[in-house]
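To the wet lab folks,

You asked to see what we're planning to order before we commit. Fair enough. Below is the target structure as tokens, and below that is the sequence we designed to fit it. If anything looks off to you, flag it before the synthesis order goes out.
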């Protein structure tokens, strides 16, 4: 597939702000000519040679005014990011300079690129498929090493390669059945039908295996919300700071110091964990503290997991029972803090009052037990499934929906064959499944879907 654009686009491709280097990128049939108009190589007789960096000056061709010194690289199509002629002008990273270079390119024939238009052109020119295009966005937005690794693997085509044998097997099954319909008066032989059903079973099992990774993939992509709750002065803010590995929350010996929620993101084994430090739960007469307690209850309802912090150096009291009761119906992990002190809290008393819940002992003061706590958090939220960044992991809800739709369509076709319906009936489901897989990778596209996906990209990518 080749998409021949008549216009040349330009954008600043580095983030806003000041930096050592900033890049202005051109793509399209006139990219090299526009660059030649505004760029003069330092070496006499030098030109923009393919895939070679050329040092020179960017000048206003109308006035001759010097704008900046720059290194310019020309990538001829089709062997470029977009599949078109691409020129990258590496300038000093001043916003004023980059804007001036951008304006010069616009004045001499380019137009401003839309969000994600460079990557859209790469997709339309067959340089990447739609899954890889979305992975580029995910890689840019990655906040943890694990997110970056998963996105990079998808950008390199790991999911597309995993789906290709399924798609090919699906095409083979369709060809077999279409041939039977076209050239044979009778139905396909019973032996062939049994073999075809077995092939469909294999496709269904493989699609279900891939779809099952979405639970972990969603956690890797979106992160998890963990609320830290407990009565005042049990060490919630100290634990919050320990998990963040920096002093973010104010910690004092005065009960009720935390009056409002604090929300920060930590990384646990590469998974973003959005931590919420809440106000202590207790009966309060102070209006401000009551508002904080109300927000704490909202945080409990919204959390994927609640860390119920108890003071291990004190017996269970009425305020502890209030906290335990407030978290009875949500996923929770009991955290007995102050493990550096003699323990006076009887865990059996907790379990006697509530439904059994996982329990972990820590000391927010010394850091004792923190590694075990991090492990237990991930274990609970991933249902104990082992996660390897090298796995093919679904992180995108669109991919998950289409893979399930393909599976359901194949199940429908298999049922039709198993129940003795004609090949025409089964073919409907197989064609639907093929369409779903094609829509996932972009072999079958809908304009509204493309607009929705690429509108989320940054300008210049």
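Sequence we intend to order:
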């Amino acid at each position: 597939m080749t998409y021949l654009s008549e216009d040349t686009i330009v954008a600043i491709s580095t983030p806003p702000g000041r930096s050592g280097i900033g890049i202005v990128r051109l793509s399209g049939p006139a990219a090299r000519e526009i660059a030649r108009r505004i760029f003069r190589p330092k070496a006499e007789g030098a030109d923009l040679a393919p895939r070679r960096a050329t040092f020179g000056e960017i000048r206003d061709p109308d006035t001759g005014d010097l704008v900046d010194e720059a290194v310019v690289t020309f990538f001829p199509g089709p062997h470029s990011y977009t599949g078109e002629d691409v020129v990258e002008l590496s300038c000093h990273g001043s916003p004023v300079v980059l804007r001036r270079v951008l304006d010069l390119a616009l004045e001499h024939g380019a137009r401003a690129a839309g969000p994600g238009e460079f990557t859209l052109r790469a997709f339309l020119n067959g340089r990447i498929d739609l899954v890889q295009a979305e992975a580029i966005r995910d890689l840019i937005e990655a906040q943890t090493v694990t997110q970056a690794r998963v996105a990079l693997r998808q950008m390199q085509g790991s999911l597309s390669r995993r789906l290709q044998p399924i798609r090919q097997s699906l095409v083979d099954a369709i060809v077999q059945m279409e041939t039977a319909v076209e050239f044979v008066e009778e139905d396909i032989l019973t032996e062939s039908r049994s073999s075809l059903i077995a092939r469909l079973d294999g496709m269904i099992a493989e699609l279900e295996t891939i779809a099952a990774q979405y639970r972990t993939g969603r956690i890797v992509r979106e992160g998890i919300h963990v609320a830290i709750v407990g009565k005042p002065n049990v060490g919630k803010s100290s634990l919050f700071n320990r998990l963040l590995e920096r002093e973010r929350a104010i910690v004092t010996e005065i009960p009720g110091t935390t009056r409002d929620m604090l929300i920060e993101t930590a990384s646990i084994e590469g998974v973003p964990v959005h931590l919420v430090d809440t106000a202590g739960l207790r009966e309060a007469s102070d209006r401000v503290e009551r508002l904080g307690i109300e927000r704490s209850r909202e945080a409990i309802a919204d959390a994927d997991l609640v860390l119920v912090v108890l003071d291990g150096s004190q017996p269970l009291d009425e305020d502890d029972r209030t906290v335990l009761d407030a978290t009875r119906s949500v996923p929770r992990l009991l955290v007995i803090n102050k493990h550096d002190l003699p323990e006076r809290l009887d865990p059996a008393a907790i379990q006697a009052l509530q439904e059994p819940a996982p329990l972990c002992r820590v000391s927010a003061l010394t850091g004792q037990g923190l590694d075990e706590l991090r492990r237990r958090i991930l274990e609970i939220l991933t249902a104990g499934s082992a996660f390897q960044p090298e796995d093919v992991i679904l992180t995108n809800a669109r991919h998950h929906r289409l893979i399930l739709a393909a599976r359901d369509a194949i199940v429908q076709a298999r049922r039709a064959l198993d129940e003795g319906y004609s090949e025409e009936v089964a073919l409907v489901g197989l064609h639907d499944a093929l369409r779903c897989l094609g829509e996932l990778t972009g072999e079958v596209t809908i304009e509204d879907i493309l607009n929705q996906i690429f509108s989320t990209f940054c300008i210049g990518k």
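Structural context that might help your review: Confidence is low (pLDDT under 50) at residues 254-259. Residues 158-183 form the longest helix (26 residues).

Thanks,
Computational group
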